[in-house]
Amino acid sequence: MVMGVWDYASGKRQIWVNGTMEAETTGLATGVSPSVGDLRVGVDYNNTASAFTGHIGEFIALDSLPSTTDRQKLEGYLSHKWSIALPPGHPYEESTP
To answer: 75-86 burial by CB neighbour count: b if 16+ within 10 A, else e?
Structure first.
């Protein structure tokens, strides 16, 4: 389970994998705008030759930045639905939200 979080106002971007933050950066991405119009999942926006060649079981889009609690609830929902282990100590490691 991979979750990308992007707060355009602050430029903060995070990548979460199975409930663990794997990457974080701050600063506006060059050439990226929230009003671009195209949403591409599984492909580099500028290089369609590098497309993902697997299956995406579920895709969830939010219209606002999730709070930590909401992100953890989403992780809990997805982990129990798709049988993906969460890290020890995660609030929904053992039970569904």
So the answer is: bbbbbbeeeeeb
For the segment 66-93, what is each residue's pLDDT rounded down to a tens digit?
Answer: 899 999 999 999 999 999 999 999 999 9
b/e for 36-49, b at 16 or more Cβ within 10 A? eeeeeeeeeeeeee
| Residues whose CB falls within 8 Å of the CB of residue 41, separated by 6 or more in sequence, listed in order | 52, 56, 59
Q: What predicted TM-score, i.e. pTM, was given to this entire model?
A: 0.72
In 3D space, the residue among 60, 70, 61 whose CA is nearest the CA of residue 91 turns out to be 70
